[in-house]
UniProtKB/TrEMBL annotation:
InterPro entries: Glutathione-S-Trfase_C-like (IPR010987), Glutathione-S-Trfase_C_sf (IPR036282), Glutathione_S-Trfase (IPR040079), Glutathione_S-Trfase_N (IPR004045), GST_C (IPR004046), GST_Zeta (IPR005955), GST_Zeta_C (IPR034330), GST_Zeta_N (IPR034333). This is Maleylacetoacetate isomerase @ Glutathione S-transferase, zeta. Coiled coil: none annotated. Pfam families: GST_C_3, GST_N_3. Residues 1-80 form the GST N-terminal domain. One of its GO terms (molecular function) is glutathione transferase activity. It comes from hydrothermal vent metagenome. Keywords: Isomerase, Transferase. Its EC number is 2.5.1.18, 5.2.1.2. CDD domains: GST_C_Zeta (cd03191), GST_N_Zeta (cd03042). GO terms for cellular component: cytoplasm.
Amino acid sequence: MELYGYFRSSTAYRVRIALNVKGLDCRHIPLSILAGEHKGTEYLKKNPQGFVPYFTDGDVAMGQSMAMLEYLEEEYPRPALLPEDAMGRARVRQLSGIIACDIHPVDNLRVLKYITDELGASDAQKTAWYHHWILEGFKAFETLLQDGKSGDFCHGDQVTFADLCLVPQVYNARRFNCSLGEFPNIIRIADNCNKLAAFIQALPENQEDAT
């Protein structure tokens, strides 16, 4: 089992947490996004999108972190990262989608680089862009956490995909100095997660390529 990633990649971060929760032995192969190693010829043969993470398990290989989470959940079902009931699974996937589909795609490094390098956005405009999408997504996320179905974690007292997506996004929001005071449930849940060994081990600063 191998995971190609970058220590600050929130998508690789969520997969690292899943591997840790499930106690799976995985070789981590760091790629420097800043140095463009994810655009190298050999890596593009593996993953034509040129993104991280990229995951292999024997003959199985894939890009896209949410596909990796689904694969790990089906192939290595215990400990479970999805609830047993259909409605619970749907709720967790809805929460996960706010992060994985709505916030992350517009706030990742390649988008920020494009709006500055190609569209001429200033650093202040780039920061405003980043904060806007984080705060918009977190407002919806925070509201959904108030439906009575959350507990210590996003869905009851079980760590799920939603927590795996939320924690890296909170980490990035703090790194970019987003004001999170209006999101008490998000902060409470992220802090609960970050007390667990699986999350601590997955922290960007605890990776071998951390700089």
